[in-house]
Amino acid sequence: MIKGVAGGDRDRYVNTHFSKNTWVELGVYRFTGTPRVELTNTTDDGTADEDIAWDAVAFQPLSGKPKHMVVAMGDSYTSGEGSGAYSPESNRDHGKSSWNACRRGDNSWPRKMKLPGQSTSIGELSNNRSATVDFLDVSCSGAKTSHLTPGDPTPWGQMGNYHEKSQIDSGVLSPDTTLVMLTIGGNDGDNFTEAITKCYVLFGTCDPADYTGRVDQAVTDTGGLLKESRAPRRTLRSSSWATRAWSVNSRA
């Protein structure tokens, strides 16, 4: 929980299995009170028996609100499945109950994009902790619209979720978000998987009627998701912006 934030305390859910001794960004906030971070090992899907893997918190003062506050959400097309260079917490423990295959990669298209007026990619600006861009990525390979919408997934730990909080509930979105990059819907109703196996791998067994209803439902669900993820706009004086919050992960 980030405390002292204008408008009230802000919850931020972070998978702690990053590389050892790595700074993990918690986001950019406008503080009106004393900045403070409280961490807990109590999660909706757990039993509070894992250690919190951190040993330091830091606040990076900023001269103003970053011009671009960008959030990446969605499925494998956003996360960069197949592109390699995945963040450690999103590609670990295959075959175990702690398996995570969200596979958020350095080569994903959101990180490769260049924003208007920028000559450097979003990923590079983020890696260099630029004061002009704040970038948070909660996309996950295999995600369906239900994995993004508010509320706990049922069940936990399946493909597209992997014990991570709903992407909207993760705390990356706020009224200060300026851009949401999103791809979603292809996995709904298992359309993508079945289309590949039946229409490509197994020739002659593909009937478009098998997919029409599910595609229509995915379109409807995606429309609802866009409304959910649209952050309310507000105007804040840039001089009131102070801090990017970080914590250090002490466990590999």
Write the layout of secondary structure elements.
Elements: E1 2-5, E2 22-29, E3 31-37, E4 54-61, E5 68-74, H1 76-79, H2 109-112, H3 122-127, E6 133-137, E7 179-183, H4 191-201, H5 209-229, E8 243-249
Parallel strand pairs: 5-6, 5-7
Antiparallel strand pairs: 1-3, 2-8, 4-8
Structure description:
By secondary structure, the protein is of the alpha/beta class. The chain contains 5 helices and 8 strands, in the order E-E-E-E-E-H-H-H-E-E-H-H-E. It has helices spanning 76-79, 109-112, 122-127, 191-201, 209-229; strands spanning 2-5, 22-29, 31-37, 54-61, 68-74, 133-137, 179-183, 243-249. The strands form 3 sheets. Strands 2-8-4 form a 3-stranded antiparallel β-sheet, with no helix packed on it. The chain has a 3-stranded parallel β-sheet with strand order 6-5-7. The longest helix is centred in the last third of the chain and has 21 residues, at 209-229. It is globular, with a radius of gyration of 19 Å. The two termini are 22 Å apart.
What labels would you give this structure?
alpha/beta; three-stranded antiparallel beta sheet; globular; 5 helices; 252 residues; 20% strand
